[in-house]
Amino acid sequence: MQVPSYKVDEYSLLPDQPGVYKFFNSESDLIYVGKAKSLKKRVASYFVKGQGINHKTRRMVREIERIEITLVNSEFDALLLENNLIKKTQPRYNILLKDDKTYPYLVLTKEHFPQIYPTRKLIPHRGIYFGPFASVKAMNNVLELIRSIFTIRTCKLDLSPEKIFEGKYKVCLEYHIGNCLGPCEGKQKEIEYLQDIEQAKHILKGNLGIAKSFFRDQMQKAAESLAFERAQYFKDKLELLEKYQSKSMVVNPAIKDLDAFAMVTDEKNAYVNYLKVKNGAIIITKTVELKKRLDETDTELLLTAIVRLRDQFNSDADEIIVNIPFDENYEGLNIHVPKIGDKKNLIELSLKNAKYYKQEKLLASGEVKDKKFRVLKQLQSDLALQDLPDHIECFDNSNMQGTNPVASMVCFLNGKPAIKEYRHYHIKTVEGPNDFASMTEVVGRRYKRLLEEAKPLPKLIVIDGGKGQLSSAVEALKSLEIYGKVPIIGIAKRLEEIYFPGDQYPIHIDKKSESLRLLQRIRDEAHRFAITFHRNVRSKKAFGSQLTEVEGIGKQTAERLLKHFKSVKKIHEASESEIASIIGQAKAKNLIAWLKNEKGG
After folding, report:
1. What is the CATH number of domain 253-365?
2. Which of 414, 417, 420, 372 is nearest to 389 (CA)?
3. Of the residues 370, 433, 461, 510, which has the maximum number of CB atoms within 10 A of its CB?
4. Which cellular components does GO assign to this protein (predicted)?
């Protein structure tokens, strides 16, 4: 089909009808796509003098060599077509929505005994896709819910009637632990399986109310027929659904389905937050950045975000609430600014998210240089430090009932975690559970190493603990003759009290202060890092002890395996040949047999 094409000086010949226009330069590159209620009037506005167009638009107009148009039935149709063309071609002068992330979906396959599993690739003939989900965590929550309620298979077998009848398959572990009803051996009829799939589809679409009604009806029917075990079965499923729904940010069940959009802007960009509400609960939240190209109005920017985000997250909600009033109505879009009630609260929540995203982006880019170290400056003031604490190190010990004592050190640079600088420590010189002596050891080892390597010392040392742990760390600094050169504090967990060396009384930073939140974050990260390391050490030691039960494997061989594979999980995943390359073929066979037996048992 030939598309109507016009030379630049023929814009007056364009029809007075709604449609989409495309501008091409002398090299036939598409440089801009726009929509219009009247193509003739809108395109003419670029070329008629005295229209007050800005310098960016003038620069684009100078490049236009040819114009193509597509007629549509309404302005709303023009809006949708414009969005599709921009998404596909990404012209240089159009608004750029910065979001290169590939989102995850759940696919319900088209086959006998359909599967449900995650994917990032959309292959239409494979099945029905649900999503995209704003995060992998959100997707996994839904998938976990479905698998906990329904017995849907996780295998990849071809479960055609012929192959099941021929007895090609045997039930696996999933059947024996109750996660599958064994359709591969014909133990479950396909019609019963598809009933579960039908309810799972409602949940995937966000229609939890339909699934809840189904389980409630089944529970009542079972109770009426005195089948109390079956009634309890459906009650458990219903409670799982209600528990899942309670984890969502519930707004108000009376709100039903709507989309909320809030936008804040600066000279170069706009930041738009999107909240998708289904059955009174927020099920998706997403914030994006739009880069301005031609000094677009706020409504143009917000409209672009509305169309693209609704398209991306497959929203068909009839109602759209925003924080910026629109001068005109768009047929097909019910857009308004709420004035009171829960909807107004929802928009305020969305606006709060947009403002926070903008602030984080500006701080990360360094554009707001005055604010970049605002929190660090506040911390410097609160602790009366001589230097800005742009390099902070925090220590924590971990042991359980005195076993496997370890410690951790985390490092924050410019208020952000510097993960490559994190360190783990095995306690070497202390016998038994002695947190104070352990703290002296690890702090001494850390700064002795930095001094030997001539590396810079931190601007602040934080000790996870009260006066006792702080005093122990101070001993280490004194032994290295650097006490007084590096500020050091202790933070006690219970009341978030800050202790200074030699001071009997702690100080309290305002609970709402950003500087206290930074200290808490650093302390919590050190604690998490220590606990994780401690668990790994205990797991390795326990597993190492178990390995010595295998014929031919002693303590040294077990240690060699753990040293090579680094973790218990990797030993479980290793092939026989990989293991044999470390301990020999005979021992590897014995170990593989033992691992399989342990997994099966």
Report:
1. 3.30.420
2. 414
3. 461
4. cytoplasm; excinuclease repair complex
CA distances from 46 to 38, 58, 95, 348, 531 (A): 13, 8, 17, 37, 64
Alpha-helix residue ranges (DSSP H) falling in 10-66: 39-47, 55-63
pLDDT at 372 over 60: no
3-state SS, one letter per residue, for 531-599 = HHHHHHHHHHHHHHHHHCCCCCCCHHHHHHHHHHHCCHHHHHHCCHHHHHHHHCHHHHHHHHHHHHHHH
Structure tokens at 272: 């738009």
Nearest-CA neighbor of 336 among 322, 357, 315, 356?
322
Mean pLDDT of the chain: 80
pTM of the full predicted structure?
A: 0.45
CATH class of the domain defined by 548-600: mainly alpha
d(CA 187, CA 205): 29
pLDDT of residue 412: 93
The CATH fold of domain 5-94? GIY-YIG endonuclease (3.40.1440)
Strands (E), 239-390: 249-250, 258-265, 269-278, 281-291, 319-322, 334-336
Domain with CATH 3.40.1440.10 in the chain: 5-94
Q: How many CB atoms lie within 10 A of CB 359?
A: 14
